[in-house]
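Subject: two folds for Thursday's group meeting

Dear M.,

Sorry for the delay on this. The cluster queue was jammed most of the week, so I only got both jobs back this morning. I'm pasting them in the order they finished. Each block is the input sequence followed by the predicted structure tokens. Could you check whether the formatting survives your parser before we put anything on slides? The first protein is the one we discussed after the seminar.
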Amino acid sequence: MINSKTIEYYQNYYGVYLSDYVGNSKAQDTRINYILAFIVICILLGAFSLSKPIFAKTDTPDTVAKVNIETIYTNEQFRNDIINKYKNTTVTFPTKGVAHIKKVEYINSKPIKINIVELNTKVNPYLRIQPQTASTKLNSKSTIRKIAQKQNATIAINGGFFKPQTGVPLGALMIDRKVLTGPIYNRVGIAIFEQGNKTTFRMDNIDFIINAYTKNQKVKIDNINQPRMLSTHTLLYTSDWGSISPIAPKTGYNLLIRGNKAIKMSANPIPLEKNDFVISANKQTIISLAKDKEIYIDLKLSENLKGAKHIIGAGPYLVKDSEVFVDVKAQKLEAINGKNPRSAIGYKKDGTFIIVTIDGREKASVGMTLRELANFMKKIGCEYAMNFDGGSSSALYVKGKIVNSAVNKEGIAVSNALVVNELYNDSELVISSAQ
């Protein structure tokens, strides 16, 4: 607060100072010289500073603010890019933002027939990419055509590996955030993320974290809805597996859980009703869990997968960080390394999703090794790519037709597929100006 006494003080102070200055000509001349000198110095400094570039210290690559503006990718640009990329080949456009390319390449003078689908959800935000099973139960099989038609799909390709006798997928599978099966041998998979009209992908080794909890203990579960590989594993089976659980491991038990309550313990297979769980493990683990009566299952995605809507696993890698990377030994897939019909998927840095089938085992097309397939996926621009189940399973459906040379013209019945459809009634879709 400024009070009247303070005002009087400053008035008196400056009044005395000014009267001394005006009345003393010598002091006045001295002060004028000082003022003039000060003005000259200021002018010189100003001229010096103007000779320097503006923002000389701040306008550097490290400090300039960068604005990332997502350009609009039109259907016309997409079509032109595809036509320019695949010159002298057969190119069709089954729907907006989707291209189908048929071509023949030669390796060591041997012909290889190739089908490629490239699609971009920035061009067509109604496109949805997701895995599908042959039926509501995992122990089922169906042809790619039937799976595609059931989902009203525009594009479909056979998916991950499966057990031929039963159809149960051998590897990770999650659809609409529901985990159906767990990974094996730490194999690679693709996670699909959706947010409004934006679809993104992540290819990585798949891991799920599963535990059974009671009031007294936590038990780590090794896998979900997968055939037993080791007698020491603790496995979880849900009603998605089928109508009955597998037999318990030797000297082990199955424990039926219904409504989080331990209901029944048996060494034999146990019938499964909707929402039932069965934990299959060694005798000591099962007896200990059963004593606590109430059991809760907790399943989480690993950090690298959080937020994913869909996951499908297979392997091995073909391209990683834009470089050929074929890890058959680590993923225990040496047996499939010869020249065979192939199925593969990948994606480019700009978000374009790529689906490929390679015809093989015929005079007109000899197939590819995994290394040859990896080189091809890199050549067409994949930042990441992975192998799907191949051989007689390999089949590609494009708008009502099987377009590759599949076995029996339809391909064999398979466990699961990756489908692409257009969801024009998708209530979550939000069209942005930069698509």
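Second protein, same layout:
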Amino acid sequence: MEDKDRIVITGVGLTAPNGNTLSEYREHLLAGQGNIQRIPMRYMNEVLAGVCNFDTNKYQKRKEVRNGTRAGSIGIYCTREAITNAGIDWENVDKSRVGVYVGITEHGNVETENEVHNISQFNYETKYWTHHHNPRTVANNPAGEITMNLGITGPHYTVGAACAAGNAGIIQGAQMLRLNEVDIAIAGGVSESIQSFGIFAGFKSQGALAEHENPNQASRPFDSSRNGIVVSEGGALYTLERLSDAKKRGAEILAEVTGYCMNSDAKDAVLPDPQRQAECINKALSMAKLPASRVNIVSTHATATPMGDIQECQGLRNVFQNCPNTFFNNTKSYIGHAMGAAGALELAGNLSSFNDNQIHPTINVDKLDPECELDNLVLNQPREGSNIDVILNNSFGMLGINSVLIVQKYTA
């Protein structure tokens, strides 16, 4: 494949409940250090959540933060950090050749819920409804706020793909680069879900909202006592470039995007289909021209719902049944489920394995569910790998949307 057709990652910016830089995030993952807390939630007293603690005023004025959205602030922070991390001479970049592709699970619920609550205090008098509501709630808002903050005049949009959205944003960015529509793609996912009463109430009514006396042990993928999802906020956005452009400016290359696939279960709104997931994985492997045995790390989607984890493990066993050098881990056990940002954050958590050959574990597994057994499932303590150079990132969502992304250690 020619350099102009190879897509590489040259920068990453993130905020997660347990870190605001890639190095801090990685340090905490290897140390088994999560960060879940109890927060007040309207009509529900308190809920467990993963809350990010980044400096919203590092790249925005206070008025911009006040008039915009939490998802927009997360996106702006991650984008600025990704551009800096990539060493891009931003002042001399043609901004019309930069595209922004942000995966989201939902957008606008938070703002609408808040406004309805606010006017309820004034007998629902609409004069108290903010004039910022419409630009805050349009689906393209997080990506649009990024373009306004950075003066980007190329294409921008959000990719609504439920909890598969983090991967979907990266896939969209890679495709637009291959089409020569842009020269730099800002791609990944963001989520502001912890501010939405409806998100928590919905999972609660499904019996899928986690509870534990110790917040940091509430997210328990694969554990026999798992009882649901911990909702989190966060974001991870990447600078993607064609290899030819990255080499021209002497960029450090973090990874190469070599395979991806998205498909649909077309069966159930919430229960995943292991056969369709396995097909998605196999199609991504085919695109990357790799056998399953060449994958070193599979970053699982597992959300800690009883059936969701079992179904994913069944699909994984179908693909990786004879792969002694393939390891499996999970990041939600540290940070909860960051919805639209989940896949992008989980990829970031494993990227450093290309350099240190360490595989961060799934934590909070006291008793492994026998139906979630996988050969080389990394539990509670990091594992040392050998020449890690292929990572496969699973990310699945409601209404049966599946996404798989494969990145490899860059070799010339």
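Two things I noticed about the second structure. The first strand starts at residue 7 and ends at 15. The chain has two domains: 7-248, 258-408.

Cheers,
T.
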